[in-house]
Design a protein that fits this description.
Mean pLDDT: 94
Structural class: mainly beta
Strand content: over 45%
Order of helices and strands: EEEEEEEEEEE
Helix content: under 10%
Largest sheet: 7 strands, mixed
Number of strands: 11
Number of helices: 0
Radius of gyration: 14 Å
Low-confidence stretches: none
C-alpha cells in the first residue's frame, strides 16, 4: 500500500489550494484517512480526518477554512484549503489507517507535499 500526495506548491496569503492523496495497492480496506502537517520547529499536527463512511473530523483551530472530502471509490481524499496564511506553511502528509491482504491494520504515511504561503 502506498499513499501519494499531490497539489502542493506556492500560494499567496488569502489564496486557496487543494491537495489530493490516493491510496494505491490491491486488496486493501480503509478505516480512515486524513491530513497532518509538519512545520519547521513545530510538532506534527492533525489537519483533518475522514472516516470510510465520509464523516470528517477537524481540530478546533482548523474549522471553517479546511474541508476534507473523498471520492466515490474512497481511495482518494482531498483537502480544500481556503484563506491560507503564512502560518499554514508546512509539509502536508497524507495519513491512512489501512489493512491489506498481507498485514493487519497499519498506519501509512505519504511522503508529503510542501505548501508554502507567501507573497
Amino acid at each position: 500500500v502506498d499513499l501519494v500526495e499531490s497539489g502542493g506548491g506556492l500560494v499567496q496569503p488569502g489564496g486557496s489550494m487543494r491537495l489530493a492523496c490516493t491510496v494505491s495497492g490491491t486488496d486493501f480496506m480503509i478505516n480512515n484517512m486524513g491530513w497532518y502537517r509538519h512545520a519547521p520547529g513545530k510538532q506534527r499536527e492533525m489537519v483533518a480526518l475522514i472516516s470510510n463512511n465520509g464523516l470528517p473530523t477537524y481540530p478546533a483551530s482548523g474549522k471553517g477554512r479546511f474541508t476534507i472530502s473523498q471520492d466515490s471509490t474512497k481511495s482518494t481524499i482531498y483537502l480544500q484549503m481556503n484563506d491560507l496564511n503564512p502560518e499554514d506553511t508546512a509539509l502536508y502528509l497524507c495519513y491512512g489507517h489501512i489493512k491489506d491482504k498481507d498485514n493487519g491494520w497499519l498506519i501509512y504515511w505519504g511522503l508529503g507535499t510542501q505548501v508554502t504561503v507567501s507573497s
